Amino acid sequence: GGGARELRDDRTELLAEFIGLGSAALYADRPADRDDIELLPTLTNEVCETFQAAACVYELRSLRLLSHRSAEGPA
């Protein structure tokens, strides 16, 4: 089945969203987009702590998303 692929895509989508939000705050002079994912390896330790906190939110959101998907049943 393609379940694992769908899961990975969901997580990637949420990760792109939360990285975009963080990058928008860091680089407020320009709009955030998915290219900001490439900036992640260049972030400083201080900024990474912020992203670590954001990652907790991301994990909770992805779990909530998955539970909603499961409750709806197969598409």
Keywords:
0% strand; mainly alpha; 75 residues
Verbal overview:
- With 75 residues, this protein is mostly helical.
- It has one domain (3-72).
- 69% of the residues lie in helices and 0% in strands.
- The chain is built from two helices and no strands.
- It starts with a helix and ends with a helix.
- The mean pLDDT is 61.
Count the E strands. Answer: 0
Mean pLDDT: 61
Strand content: under 5%
The residue ranges in which pLDDT falls below 50 over 5 or more consecutive positions are none
Helical/strand content category: mainly alpha
Secondary-structure element series: HH
Q: What's the domain count?
A: 1
Assembly type of the chains comes to single chain
Alpha-carbon distance between the two ends: 13 Å
Query: Could you describe the largest sheet, including whether it forms a barrel?
Result: none
Helix content: 55-70%
Spatial shape: elongated
Q: Tally the helices: what do you get? A: 2
Report Rg.
14 Å
Give the arrangement of secondary structure elements.
Layout: H1 3-26, H2 45-72
Helix pairs in contact: 1-2
Q: How would you briefly describe this protein structure?
A:
By secondary structure, this protein is mostly helical. The protein has 2 helices and no strands.
